[in-house]
Amino acid sequence: MVFFYVDNLSAKLIFGGSNSGCGLCNKSIICQSNPSFMELKEEIVKKVLLLQQKYAAMGQDLESYLDGLLHADYLTYWDYIHLDTLLSLQTPRTSFPDEEIFIMYHQITELYFKLTLHEMEQIVAHKELTGKFMTARLKRVNSYFQALTTSFEIMVNGMEREQFLKFRMSLLPASGFQSAQYRLIEIYSTHFRNLVQAESREKYASDYSEKDLVEMYEDIYWKKGATELSSGKKTLTLNQFEEKYTETLLGTAERCYRANILHCYTVLPESEKADLDLITQLKWLDVNVNINWPLSHYKSAVKYLQKNPVDIAATGGTNWQKYLPPRFQKRIFFPDIWSEQEKEDWGKSWVEEILHQTN
Ligand code: HEM
């Protein structure tokens, strides 16, 4: 047992047995007649000593840090999560109330994308990756995407179409197309070659080298979604995006050349690769990112941009009807875990269901 005696000038540690008490009355551990006599639990003393070691190792003085602790305020919820900042990030460009919904739902989506990348990074950076760890992290990613897919109703039915069609004109040429995190999720998931437009993919060997990445980037599938129908030129939306993010995207492609989810799976021992739980999570990732989310998103484009005498142009005058549906793009992260028939039918039933509903 350790006792700590505090008076105005000094503090003394007194070590003794459990019967030791206050040096003045020798009665109790927490002394009534002398309240400045305090018991200090052994665990606390041990922690103080550990802290002293920690700070000494960095040439720091524990006492100064303890002073800091004495003066520091208690943490609050709002400071911890930066609530005021978070709630100040919605700045509509128009006075249509539904524009706030549009902004916030995009922000919510970007936070889920960030969570996804956080999990993916843990997989690709793992020094001793196991199938079990991979499965657990992919389960998390799949739950984020399931939440995104099911909540997309907020976009589809949660805004007045008339308001949307007006406020969107004040947002041009900005588009969710410019979401870099969305592209990073794809780059983390698979070999870069799988993200090349289907028509150009054969140009690149399946054992392509890291040097090919720059050329492949020019053939990346998303450029197709941002080419002006009338002139065949890149849209301003794409030009802005490339100017800001090409370096980051290519840098990540290089980093993920031999460190993406597909690669990490391929190099696992055969016994772990055959694990059904893991294969199921990989399949869900493919379905969630490449079919379910794109279809929920497509549904919103259909709701707001279709059904006009002449369909309302997408952000850059692109043919979004031909670009957005997964069955046309056929983006597949893990082609080898699907049968030929499944790949052939990629996204089909869903698309037909949606088109049926909106006709
Ligand atoms: C009313 C709601 C929405 C409509 C009508 C809509 C419409 C569109 C359209 C037409 C495109 C094609 C490119 C373009 O012309 O801009 C597109 C692309 C895209 N949008 Fe949205 N969008 C909506 C909501 C969202 C939300 C909430 C997100 C979340 C971040 C998002 C993310 C994306 C992404 C990532 C792409 C690129 C998809 C790809 O390349 O396959 N969109 N959107």
Could you explain the architecture of this structure?
With 359 residues, the chain is mainly α. The protein is 54% helix and 4% strand. The chain folds into two domains: 2-79, no CATH class; 94-358, Methane Monooxygenase Hydroxylase, Chain G, domain 1 (Up-down Bundle). A three-stranded antiparallel sheet has the order 2-1-3. It binds protoporphyrin IX containing FE (HEM). Protoporphyrin IX containing FE binds at residues 105-106, 109, 155, 164, 175-177, 179, 182, 222, 225, 237, 294, 297, 300-301, 304-305, 314-316, 318, 320, 324. Residues 105-106, 109, 155, 164, 175-177, 179, 182, 222, 225, 237, 294, 297, 300-301, 304-305, 314-316, 318, 320, 324 line the site of protoporphyrin IX containing FE (HEM).
Biggest sheet: strands side by side, in what order? 2-1-3
DSSP strand content: under 5%
Q: Residue-averaged pLDDT, rounded? A: 88
How far apart are the termini? 80 Å
Structural class: mainly alpha
Which topology of the largest domain does CATH recognise?
Answer: Methane Monooxygenase Hydroxylase, Chain G, domain 1
Shape: globular
Order of helices and strands: EEEHHHHHHHHHHHHHHHHHH
Small molecules bound: protoporphyrin IX containing FE
> What count of domains describes the coordinates?
2
Proportion of helical residues? 40-55%
Uncertain spans: 16-20
Radius of gyration: 29 Å
The CATH level-2 architecture of the largest domain is identified as: Up-down Bundle
